[in-house]
Design brief:
- This protein is mainly α.
- The chain has one domain: Leucine-rich Repeat Variant.
- Helix 5 runs parallel beside helix 7.
């Protein structure tokens, strides 16, 4: 997975479906990867959007996404915003998760309206619009 010889996204999504132990493994892998390996980091962040929002481990997943949203690579920042929005929608269906409520996510998204990358700003704007009035 690290060298890209197999599809990173598929492997990361398979690992996250193992449950909390898979989520923890991906978080550890994400934290150990250099910032320059943005393809792997982006794949892991995308896979974390499939984390089980009913399990207690979801707080660690969300915390990791919040931290990783400060990444130096725009593709990774954008993927973090998209993953948080996916988790927000999934949590609304399965029950509420404190860190995925609008009063937490909206101020976080507002910060990204000033991002230097246009695609990150547009993703943040789209996420804000999806919350409605």
């Amino acid at each position: 997975m690290k060298d890209g010889s197999i599809n990173r996204d598929n492997v990361a999504e398979t690992i996250v479906r193992l449950g909390p132990s898979g989520e923890q493994l991906l978080i550890e892998m994400l934290n150990s990867q250099p910032v320059t390996n943005f393809k792997l980091r982006k794949g892991i962040v995308h896979a974390l959007s499939q984390a089980n929002s009913d399990h207690n481990n979801i707080d660690f997943v969300i915390e990791t996404l919040f931290k990783t949203a400060g990444d130096s690579m725009a593709q990774v920042r954008k993927e973090c915003l998209e993953s948080l929005q996916i988790l927000h929608h999934r949590a609304k269906q399965a029950g509420q998760v404190t860190f995925l409520k609008p009063n937490t996510l909206l101020p976080f998204y507002f910060k990204f309206l000033k991002d230097k990358d246009r695609s990150v700003r547009m993703t943040a704007l789209q996420n804000i619009v999806e919350f409605g009035a």
